């Protein structure tokens, strides 16, 4: 198909979700009818971050879009659906911590260094010079393009219009697209513009900015040799994953980069500030002493891990307050832009990867072609809202609930202070609740995709 006839999809943001969407479109674009412009504000596609959990459910999607062979060697174990321990949960807020329960699912968590995942996605972008991508979709990457605004060309005569969108960037020429994807993260510019243009913008004011949860996360990577020196035979050296649970704080620990590093995420409920607005930068470098102070009196295994994190970073944990519309007109939000959630379930990117896969399936479906009629665009946005909003909200809520169990702040724990003895049945009950909340990780994403495609093929129900 000639370039002029292709559906012009503009993606704002080349994070994990924007990249996954571009790769998914190319993988599914059998009719070669899509042209992507991928706009990223940063001057380069940096490979950043620490560890990330990929679940069997997301693995199915990553395989479907062609990343299987590239990712297998980068996981901590070969993907399968055997029963595996996700986290050995321990009571951590006392000198001699002890085992509570092994939280298990089918297939475990596929742990990967975020930089490795991002690098594989970048290699599979259908850019003309790619050596691995089987190119069906045309793709152009525009770095240092920060979106400021979008406007709609009226081609119907009605106010507001329904035609293609014009994108406006800081210090760069503007551009036109048929479909606009906001994959620009928790602070999303696209979301802010999109919500302010809904018929009832005042209803959506509280979704313009994320809400601070009162929690912060300290993150760091520990080299295996360092930990072996700090505490020979440390449990984390050989364990698939651990969670040290305590009052108002907990830490999760798991291997990444084939076991070379151990990823540490230490979460603290900061009760000193009574506000839901975080002031200042969201991610700051902090001195190691701050982390030691936060976990003073905890198990020596935690102390040893902290001693190996010379340069911890602190992240403010923020989320959106369960936005209930992700698409309208020609604009679609995905990933953190639509549903930034708290990290207690390790599910934020997972849900974004599903958004990407399902929308890519709808846009590459034979019934979607240029020129896009208003009716077809409305059908796509209705289906996307129908199939993506409920699971994203459920996962956000579930993640929040899971946090209270990890933090020993769920109901039943009110009377206990940091370091207290807590009845074992209460502790095990909390770990079981966490385990139940991880059962979704092995469900089949094809069912959701099939449901979306069925709605497109027989749309009565959604219109
Ligand atoms: C402590 C912690 C642990 C986590 N662990 C997990 C886990 O184990 N598993 C999991 O699934 N998820 C996890 N998450 C969540 C996950 O990190 C996010 O959900 C995911 O990274 C979101 O990806 P994204 O592509 O939507 O957004 P981002 O990664 O934020 O990407 C957005 C991109 O858009 C660009 N951009 C922004 N504004 C503009 C603009 N105006 N114009 C152009 N470009 C723009 C940015 O530069 C950026 O590159 C965790 C999160 C935290 C904080
Ligand atoms: C749950 O969400 C609310 C609202 O954002 C927040 O105040 C609270 O701290 C969250 N709880 C946990 C454990 O993350
Ligand atoms: C998570 O657990 C809570 C409390 O046990 C429950 O209300 C919620 O439905 C669970 N969520 C999932 C996705 O299992």
From TrEMBL:
It comes from the Eukaryota. Pfam families: FAD_binding_3. The chain crosses the membrane at residues 7-28. GO terms for biological process: secondary metabolite biosynthetic process. Signal peptide: none annotated. The keyword Flavoprotein applies. Keywords: FAD, Flavoprotein, Membrane, Oxidoreductase, Transmembrane, Transmembrane helix. One of its GO terms (molecular function) is FAD binding. The keyword Ribonucleoprotein does not apply. Residues 7-366 form the FAD-binding domain. PANTHER family: FAD-BINDING DOMAIN-CONTAINING PROTEIN-RELATED, HYDROXYLASE, PUTATIVE (AFU_ORTHOLOGUE AFUA_3G01460)-RELATED. This is 4-aminobenzoate hydroxylase. It comes from Macrolepiota fuliginosa MF-IS2.
């Amino acid at each position: 198909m000639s370039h002029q006839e292709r559906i012009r999809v503009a993606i704002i943001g080349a994070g994990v979700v924007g990249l996954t969407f571009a790769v998914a479109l190319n993988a599914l674009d059998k009719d070669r009818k899509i042209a992507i412009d991928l706009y990223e504000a940063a001057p380069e596609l940096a490979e950043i971050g620490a560890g990330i959990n990929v679940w069997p459910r997301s693995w199915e999607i990553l395989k479907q879009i062609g990343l299987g062979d590239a990712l297998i060697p980068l996981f901590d174990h070969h993907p399968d659906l055997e029963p595996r321990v996700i986290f050995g949960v321990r009571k951590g807020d006392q000198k001699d911590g002890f085992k509570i329960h092994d939280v298990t699912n089918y297939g475990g968590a596929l742990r990967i260094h975020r930089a490795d995942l991002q690098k594989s996605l970048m290699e599979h972008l259908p850019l003309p010079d790619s050596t691995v991508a089987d190119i069906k979709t045309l793709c152009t990457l525009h770095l240092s393009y920060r979106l400021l605004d979008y406007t709609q060309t009226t081609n119907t005569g009605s106010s507001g219009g329904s035609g293609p969108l014009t994108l406006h960037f800081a210090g760069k020429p503007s551009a036109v697209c048929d479909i606009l994807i906001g994959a620009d993260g928790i602070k999303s510019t696209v979301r802010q513009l999109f919500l302010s243009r809904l018929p009832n913008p005042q209803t959506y004011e509280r979704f313009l900015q994320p809400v601070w949860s009162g929690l912060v996360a300290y993150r760091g990577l520990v080299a295996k040799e360092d930990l072996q020196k700090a505490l020979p035979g440390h449990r984390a050296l050989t364990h698939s994953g651990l969670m040290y649970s305590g009052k108002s704080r907990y830490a999760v620990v798991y291997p990444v980069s084939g076991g070379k590093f151990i990823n540490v995420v230490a979460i603290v409920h900061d009760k000193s500030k009574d506000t839901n607005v975080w002031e200042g930068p969201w991610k700051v470098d902090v001195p190691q002493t701050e982390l030691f102070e936060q976990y003073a009196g905890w198990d020596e295994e935690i102390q040893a891990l902290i001693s190996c994190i010379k340069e911890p970073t602190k992240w403010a944990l923020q989320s959106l307050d369960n936005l209930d519309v992700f698409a309208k007109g020609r604009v679609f939000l995905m990933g953190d832009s639509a549903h930034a959630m708290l990290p207690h379930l390790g599910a934020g990117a997972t849900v974004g990867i599903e958004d990407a896969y399902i929308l890519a399936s709808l846009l590459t479906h034979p019934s979607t072609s240029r020129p896009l009629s208003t009716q077809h665009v409305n059908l796509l946005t209705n289906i996307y809202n129908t199939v993506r909003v409920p699971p994203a909200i459920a996962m956000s809520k579930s993640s929040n609930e899971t946090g209270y169990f990890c933090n020993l702040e769920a109901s039943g724990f009110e009377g206990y202070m940091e370091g207290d003895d807590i009845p074992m049945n209460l502790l095990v009950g909390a770990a079981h609740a966490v385990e139940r909340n991880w059962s979704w990780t092995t469900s089949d994403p094809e069912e959701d995709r099939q449901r979306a495609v069925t709605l497109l093929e027989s749309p009565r129900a959604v219109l």
